[in-house]
């Protein structure tokens, strides 16, 4: 860590997360030192209990923080094995699509893992040079051609339910709304939506 700090440009920030290995290292050194002192001077047994008490004092706050973080990642994290993916409404609707319907998605890996359906990768918004075309109207994008001409389903997944109310996601949602404007929405829920390119007479 010292070498990284001294020889990296720009200098990395020093914060509690980067100092965590140092904290654990110091704890192990202090415990080893305390054990050695107790053995060397044949101190009473209760001194070992005092050391154990210090370990608990240091560990309990970290345990609470770690448990909260693990629980949050397990239920709402980006990992595709988390419960939120197993109960995803958009994913359940995609299971009902005929096998010959191509799928385009911003979570192609999740589709392959969860429902064994390969999918084309969705573009990074705004998806076209002008930033004004709805998805499917860019004639230079082969994936959009599949969406337009082969009847592919466009499956957009949101990070979590309620993301529409989060300020930091507003720009992305605005771009997605522009891309999906006038597309035929086949399904919508708080965790995603499914669109098709409108055929003649549909809007």
Short characterization:
Helices cover 49% and strands 10% of the residues. It is α/β, with parallel strands linked by helices and 203 residues long.
Characterization of this structure:
The chain is an alpha/beta fold. The chain has 2 domains: 2-76, no CATH class; 83-196, no CATH class. It is built from 8 helices and 5 strands. The chain has a 5-stranded mixed beta sheet with strand order 2-1-3-5-4. The chain is elongated and about 85 Å long.
Short key terms for the protein model shown above:
5 strands; 5-stranded mixed β-sheet; 203 residues; alpha/beta; 49% helix; single chain
Strand numbers in spatial order across the main sheet: 2-1-3-5-4
Q: Provide the number of structural domains.
A: 2
Judging from the principal axes of the Cα atoms, what is the shape? elongated
Arithmetic mean of pLDDT: 85
Integer-rounded radius of gyration: 27 Å
Written as H for each helix and E for each strand, in order along the chain, the element string is HHHHHEHEHEHEE
Largest sheet, in brief, is: 5 strands, mixed
Secondary structure elements and pairings:
Layout lengths: L1 H6 L8 H25 L5 H31 L6 H4 L2 H7 L7 E3 L2 H8 L4 E2 L20 H8 L3 E5 L12 H10 L4 E6 L2 E5 L7
Parallel strand pairs: 1-2, 1-3
Antiparallel strand pairs: 3-5, 4-5
Helix pairs in contact: 2-3
């Amino acid at each position: 860590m010292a070498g990284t700090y001294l020889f990296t440009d720009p200098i990395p920030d020093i914060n509690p997360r980067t100092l965590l290995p140092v904290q654990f290292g110091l704890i192990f050194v202090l415990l080893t030192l305390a054990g050695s002192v107790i053995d060397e001077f044949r101190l009473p047994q209760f001194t070992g209990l005092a050391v154990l008490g210090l370990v608990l004092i240091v560990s309990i706050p970290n345990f609470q923080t770690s448990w909260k973080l693990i629980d949050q990642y397990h239920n709402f994290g980006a990992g595709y094995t988390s419960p939120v993916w197993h109960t995803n409404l958009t994913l359940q609707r995609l299971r009902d699509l005929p096998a010959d319907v191509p799928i385009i998605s911003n979570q192609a890996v999740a589709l392959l893992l969860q429902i064994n359906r390969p999918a084309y990768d969705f573009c990074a918004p705004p998806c076209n040079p002008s930033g004004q075309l709805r998805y499917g109207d860019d004639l230079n994008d082969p994936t959009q051609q599949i969406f337009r001409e082969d009847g592919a389903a466009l499956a957009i997944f949101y990070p979590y339910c309620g993301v529409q109310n989060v300020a930091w996601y507003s720009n992305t949602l605005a771009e997605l709304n522009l891309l999906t404007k006038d597309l035929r929405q086949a399904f919508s829920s708080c965790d995603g939506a499914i669109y098709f390119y409108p055929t003649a007479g549909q809007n």
